[in-house]
Amino acid sequence: MQAPLAVNALEAATVWASLLLVPLGLLLAWALAALRARLGRPHPWRDSVAEVGAVFGTLPWLFLVLTPRGGDGGLQPVPFADLIDLASADPRTIAEQLVGNLLLFFLAGLFLPIRFPLGPWAVLGLGAAGAALVEAAQLAFGTGRVASVDDVLLNALGALLGALASRHWWRASRTVAAREPAESVLRSAGRDWRVTSFEVSRGTDRAARC
């Protein structure tokens, strides 16, 4: 019974650490945005908040899943085997396992499409690749945890859910970004037309005076 209690304490500490990182993340995002604004970079606040949110929202959970725990560990390569076993567990264990695995890359999936031109399926693929690396690290570092393909599926699903949750914001930002070059061309064309019109009118005046 001691191992579950220790794991639960570690999970609680991870949640508290995540909350304590919020003001530090906001301060870092503000500093990055101020620097980008001074350098004349476009969208300084959006990019800075997205970068800091993706990193700070993922690191505590990576620390949790890579922390060693008692046990021999192992590998479970059969899809859905762990999920089927989890169905017979108590509700608290089910909630902890499902929510924990979905949260691992949820914030990364939420912020990355805002920062980079990534679609939901690209985020799903990145989440799966990142989750596979995490499971491989669990085995390589001898953490005593079971590296499971079901964890990869849940981690990737969490990243996809994050991308879908922020869909309104990243679609809106891309619409604005796509509109800006066209508006720039129109403004440039307008300036060229005014210059040309002015030159033609000056030429007409000179011809009339001659």
From TrEMBL:
Coiled coil: none annotated. The lineage of its organism: Bacteria, Bacillati, Actinomycetota, Actinomycetes, Glycomycetales. This is VanZ family protein. InterPro entries: VanZ-like. Keywords: Membrane, Transmembrane, Transmembrane helix. Residues 78-166 form the VanZ-like domain. The chain crosses the membrane at residues 15-37, 49-67, 98-114.
